[in-house]
Amino acid sequence: MFRFAPTLSLAFGIAVLASPLHAADIEAGRQKAVMCGFCHGADGISQMEYTPSLAGQPDLYIQWQLVFFRAGTRQNANMTSVVEDLSNEDIRNLGAYFSSLQPMKNPKPDENPELSRKGAEAAAGRRCASCHTDNYAGIKGTARLAGQREEYLVKALNEFKSGQRSGGSMAAMADVAYPLSEEEIYALAHYLAHLN
Fold it and tell me: Between 88-100 and 59-71, two packed helices, what is the crossing angle to 10 degrees?
């Protein structure tokens, strides 16, 4: 029974988050997000290497990832202490808050359009838009990729490829990422990071 506790906790967390009984409070989410700003940026736009921007991520995506971290099905040493005391209401409010923010816009011109072209080909070949939408803005429980930090995207794709990353969409992403070459991973990350 004990070894099923994380799975039951995860299922309960997702069920509660999906419940329409309590509307999310964006202002409460903003206040709770102060702790997130140390790594993810005060406005949800990360200035820290290998740390994703959260601004403009879909509401449900944020909620699900927090539930995965809290349940221990997704592991990150920095996130463990942050999420352990979050209530379901906190998670709903954080999802609403981060989704209400303007997403990161890449201020730099694309210095390697040929790499972006290869990334666009890899994205089309792997049908990335079928889950992440045509403009890679994400939807529901699927992440926004457009404008995300390039080195974070490389890290995430490598984690999916190696099976190191778990929690939500793991099966789909492992299937997509496993056959990617190192060059394709860098090209995909470069292409997506330069989309606005």
Answer: 140
- The amino acid at residue 179 is P
Q: Tens digits of per-residue pLDDT, 97-136?
A: 999 999 988 777 899 999 999 999 999 999 999 999 999 9
Give whole-number Cα distances, 130 to 139, 144, 164, in Å: 11, 13, 23
Go through 18-37 and write b for each residue having 16 or more CB atoms within 10 A of its CB, e for each that does not.
Answer: eeeeeebbbebbbebbeebe
Cα(70)–Cα(88) distance, integer angstroms: 10
What φ, ψ does residue 52 adopt, rounded to 5°?
Answer: -75, 150
Tokens of 147: 């404008």
Amino acid at the residue 107: P
CB 156 within 8 A of CB 124: no
